[in-house]
Amino acid sequence: MTTHYLVLSALLFAIGGIGVLVRRNAIVVFMCVELMLNACNLAFVTFARQNGNIDGQVIAFFVMIVAAAEVVIGLAIIVTIFRTRRSASVDDASLLKY
Amino acid sequence: MITAPTIEYFALAPLLIIFGAAIIGVLVEAFAPRYLRRAVHVPLTLLSLVGAFALVILQTVRGVPTTPAAMGSVAVDGPTLFIWGTILVLSFVSVLLINDEEQFVPSAAAVPGSAEEEKAITEGAAHTEVYPLALFAIGGMLLFPASNDLLIMFVALEVMSLPLYLLCGLARRRRLLSQEASVKYFLLGAFSSAFFLYGTALLYGFAGTVDLLGIRERLAVGGGGTETLLLVGTAMLGVGLLFKIGAAPFQAWKPDVYQGAPTPITALMASGTLVAAFGAVLRVFWVALGNDSWNWEPIMWGVAALTMVAGSILAITQTDIKRMLAYSSIAHAGFLLVGVMAVGERGQNALALSGLLFYLVTYGITTVGAFAIVTLVRDPGGEAWHLSRWAGLGKRSPKLAGLFAFFLLAFAGIPLTSGFFGKYAVFRSAVALGEAWLTGLVVLAVVASAAAAFFYVRVIVLMFFSDPSADGPTVVTPSWATSTVVGFSAFATVALGVFPQPVLDLAEKAAKSLFVQ
Predict the structure, then answer these.
(1) What is the pLDDT of residues A60-80, one digit of tens each?
(2) How far is B494 from chain A (nearest CA, A)?
(3) Which of B75, B131, B229, B350 has a Cα at 20 to 30 A from B15?
(4) Of A47, A63, A74, the CB nearest to B205
């Protein structure tokens, strides 16, 4: 039964999505995005099993690499703004509006 | 036994040149002494763009391939070659703008206003990394519309976006705004690419492959109990793609990022990224989901209507020149989406595609020109962004204000500018479909462009019919590079407005074969 894994993946994706929307700390927001990417990976691997080909498993590796690259860029940006503002809250960064 | 994959190196050569030059740029950063870096980077970057462009022309002359390259994962077809040519020209002029030390921070790691930053400025430090980063972004832009499977498309999306997130945070002036733009762009961009990826996963579950042609074949077969996977997958994929083109309701990042980013980078994003993202939208919705158009067209209709209305109306309330241009870009994305829905039989598709390709060229060129002018009007603390600072500019430097007014009129789509023919080509194809729902949208689009014309004209009136303030902004003497960019954009905007036929023909020829299917 692969359905359970798909439900789990959808749940993880939703938790990540809600986290992005409600959390204030940029690092936590970013962790939630990573959770969403990992939910995608679970879905890919499950569908690979369901479809009987290994494309999904290969894609999961690609996604891991991309996620790693994203961490490098993301942490660099967040650390830079933290050093400037002494805060990683996304609510504080509100100079650009309207 | 495993057979080795075949790679069509000639077809992929433009991509390989750009990525190769970007990697050499990284090595230059690592090994060349500081005083030499810029001297190596500028010619390297510009020559690689010229070389890639020459290869695109050579491929067009030698005949467009009819099958996808690299084991079906990259499609180098007529529309791709046209989009590549467009992106390479726009990138070339944007890189000429990027070649301005004044725009980029001497040391991104130094806290704004700290002694460390002071030291970096007096030492004359510079982030020459912007050149390889821009090249990686341009490489991603080339791959994005050419990718023929969703995995490659996701990787290309990230290769295009990741360097741009960094580049946004590297402005020399108003660094707090720049860093904030970078964080916002990054978090929202990563969020949207997660949606893109989950959509890919669901379509993979539906079709058993991420190949666009495979999804198309699976759709043609139909049946099965997996309709939900298809619909939810399409919606999520759409969110990821529409975010990149800045369509409402995913447009919120655009004004913030366009305002905060260094202006040359804004020019690159507003032109190159938009062209690349539209190429990808077309490929996904026409090639992979073309047989499912009755499912996505109603949603796309609403998105297009909302985008053009939101862009045109919100632009009126703006007091910042870069934010206003960003909202104008949102409105233009809405107009372009009209063409995405004008699908029918083969001839109709070719008509719509050629219109879209032409619109992308005209809009991209005019945008780069407009942002190039924004870099020239300066206050003591940086560029003069506030609209009130532009009052009376026409009296103090009539040439510059005249050119800017001309670009604004081209955005508005006044006849004798390229913008008119761009809009005409897209709207004509939508009306040619002869469906009431799409013709209605064209009417809405025309009304929205009339509303948009209001705020363009407002800026022109402000520049020419109000008195300059005593402590107004200074107009710096443009460097040769900036003059070239402004001159080229103005020339192309006039030429495509008076004599558009050669480029229209080229777009038609590129669109005739449609995407490989």
Answers:
(1) 999 999 999 999 999 999 999
(2) 33
(3) B350
(4) A47
User: Which of B101, B135, B137, B139 is CA-nearest to residue B120?
Assistant: B101
Q: Residue A57: its chain B contacts at CB < 8 A? A: none
* Bond preceding residue B249 cis, omega within 30 of 0: yes
Taking the domains of chain B in order of start, what are their residue ranges? 13-511
CB contact under 8 A, B201 and A96: no
Please tell me the distance from the alpha carbon of residue B264 to that of residue B170, in angstroms, as a whole number: 11
A16 contacts on B by Cβ (under 8 Å): 194
Q: How far apart are CA B370 and CA B490, in angstroms?
A: 9
Q: Which of B406, B418, B512, B416 is nearest to B463 (CA)?
A: B406
Residue A44 to residue B201, Cβ atoms within 8 A: yes
Chain B contact for A26 (CB, 8 A cutoff):
yes
d(CA B463, CA B466): 7
Please tell me the predicted confidence (pLDDT) of residue A98: 67
Q: Order the strands of the B377-379 sheet from edge to edge.
A: B382-383, B377-379, B474-475
Higher pLDDT, residue A38 or B395: A38
pTM greater than the 0.90 cutoff:
yes
- Indicate the residue of A30, A47, A95 with minimum beta-carbon distance to B201: A47
Mutate to test the interface with B, among A70, A79, A83, A90 (most CBs of B within 10 A): A70
Q: What is the mean pLDDT of each run of 10 residues along chain B (517 residues)?
A: 86 95 96 91 96 95 84 90 96 93 86 88 87 96 95 96 95 91 95 96 93 91 79 94 93 94 95 95 93 90 95 92 94 95 88 94 96 92 88 90 95 92 93 91 94 92 87 87 95 94 91 81
Q: Which of B136, B176, B183, B237 to mutate to test the interface with A (most CBs of A within 10 A)?
A: B183
Q: Using an 8 Å Cβ cutoff, are B362 and B368 in contact? A: no
| Closest partner CB to B205 (pick from A50, A73, A84) | A50
Structure tokens, B448: 């929205």
Contacts of A94 in chain B (CB under 8 A): 180
Q: Is B199 exposed, middle or buried (0-12, 13-18, 19+ CB in 10 A)?
A: buried
Q: Tell me how close the Cα of B256 comes to any Cα of chain A, in angstroms.
A: 6
Rounded CA separation B377/B473 (Å): 6
Token representation of residue B153: 């498309």
Q: In the prediction, which pLDDT does B100 show?
A: 83
Spatial separation of the C-alpha atoms in residues B166 and B169, rounded to whole Å: 5
3-state SS assignment for residue B379: strand
State the pLDDT at residue B4: 86
* H helical segments located in chain A: 3-22, 26-51, 55-85
From B169, B200, B208, residue closest to A80, measured CB to CB: B169
Q: Which residues of B touch A80 (CB under 8 A)?
A: 108-109, 169, 179, 182
**pLDDT of B166:** 95
Contact in structure between B18 and B56 (CB atoms under 8 Å):
no
Q: Which residue of A has its CA nearest to B190?
A: A33
- Architecture of domain A3-85 in CATH? Orthogonal Bundle (1.10)
Radius of gyration of chain A measured on its C-alpha atoms: 17
User: 């004599």: which residue's tokens?
Assistant: B499
